[in-house]
Design goal:
mainly alpha, two-stranded antiparallel ribbon, 128 residues, 57% helix
């Protein structure tokens, strides 16, 4: 079997692509990467994609804009921080709903990576 067929069978079929569409991402615009060291409990495959929410949240929510501005460093652009917060919040929502990982563990992992406002961003993305 060719490598792309094996990748589809073993990796891509495990993702719930309808979930991404329901949360504002175009499933045709998603990208995947595989690594033996990604994430909590060796969750080795990651799907990511940008959503229209990033800029909208930054432009329309003074509170979210403040969190992102406070999190930016001289080495990060504010746009990168906005993207990372929203993507990490979506990734957490996806894994808690589809992979059944522990929400508190996921949020703690992101906080340890320097995303101090991930709880609040997650609440915005999850509608809680």
């Amino acid at each position: 079997m060719e490598n792309s067929a094996i990748f589809y069978r073993d990796v891509m079929k495990s993702f719930n692509f309808s979930w991404f569409a329901a949360h504002g991402s175009n499933p045709n615009n998603l990208r995947t990467y595989t690594s033996p060291s990604i994430g909590y409990q060796n969750y080795g495959n990651m799907v990511y994609g940008s959503t229209p929410q990033e800029n909208k949240m930054y432009n329309e929510s003074e509170q979210f804009r403040s969190w992102c501005d406070k999190s930016a460093t001289p080495y990060d652009s504010c746009h990168l921080i906005v993207f990372e917060y929203v993507i990490r919040a979506h990734q957490t929502l996806y894994t808690t709903e589809n992979v059944r990982v522990n929400l508190e563990n996921e949020l703690t992992l992101h906080k340890s990576d320097g995303f101090a406002y991930i709880d609040e961003t997650y609440s915005l993305v999850a509608g809680k």
